[in-house]
Amino acid sequence: MKLQKPAPLRRRPLVTVVVPHYNYGQFLPVSVRSALDQRGVDVEVIIVDDKSTDGSEQVARRLAEEHPQVTLVEHEQNMRHIRTYNDGLSRANGDYVVLLSADDALTTDSLTRSLALLEAHPEVGLVYGRVEWFDGEPPEFGPTREWWQIWRGDEWVDRVCHRGRNPIGNPEVVMRRSVYDDIGGYDPDFPHAGDMFMWLQAAARADVGFIGGPRQAYYRNHGGNMHTNDFGGVLDDMTQVRDVYRRFFVHDGFDLPGAGRMLHTAMKSVARESLLRAALLTAQGAPAETLAQLQRFAEETAPHAADSATWRWADLSRRRVAPAIRATESLRWKVRSRRTDLIGL
Question: What percentage of the chain has pLDDT greater than the value 70?
Fold first, then answer.
């Protein structure tokens, strides 16, 4: 890992921003406008309407008519999100690609900052940065100090294995198109963790960059995207995260230095994360079966999970310490968020 001062962008590269959407017409103008609001780069936007049923396709058509940089692809039948992602990205003409959900948005000049790093460091295949959650209209931010952080690909993978979870959202990522093409698209086997698999695959092929300081994207907070707040959804997501690690080290990361050790670390980390989630959900009132399911999952993932302090912490959530559990876990996530803001992991 090395810190660097930002360098200016020397040319106007072309970046393709793919905006998949289904019935998100009310959000689409904000998303597209944010992609076009970038200085010093050429932007093409590809909207992929996945057979919307609420009239949202009319919004997409109007945006394509108003902006010459915008192209609209209309599916004749609903293809679901992974196939829609891959369809849009397969049409990219830019040297760099961005997947921007129609309910999210980019910050002003975020692409300018990301492409400056990618242009200055051809060894970097993926760049990401800080994200701001929002409701309604995206907030405005004043200028702030910017710095670059470059991770060697295998070093970044190692750190992610210690985390046991996906450290990146999605709208803040810019990927070199040659790296994306080499990966071959999002894997439909991982509908809830396909982005995490993509980031690991990219890091097996190239280094990873992080833009510190200014926020790079906005992630909209609304009921439709809060899958992990559902008690059953947490188990599904944790299972896919575990399976992503396993698949990655069989196919893409098997020859990374220390691959066996990293996979072992990842399994322990996933088990720990599932137990922390179990503790918090139980303290928040989840049924007892949720704790039991996540504990079983942890034990299947890492054989000695039942002997860990995290297991005992999850057990405490069934007793009269729920307020303390909630307060501690809230603090834990604040610390994690702060660390991610500083170093990206």
Answer: 97
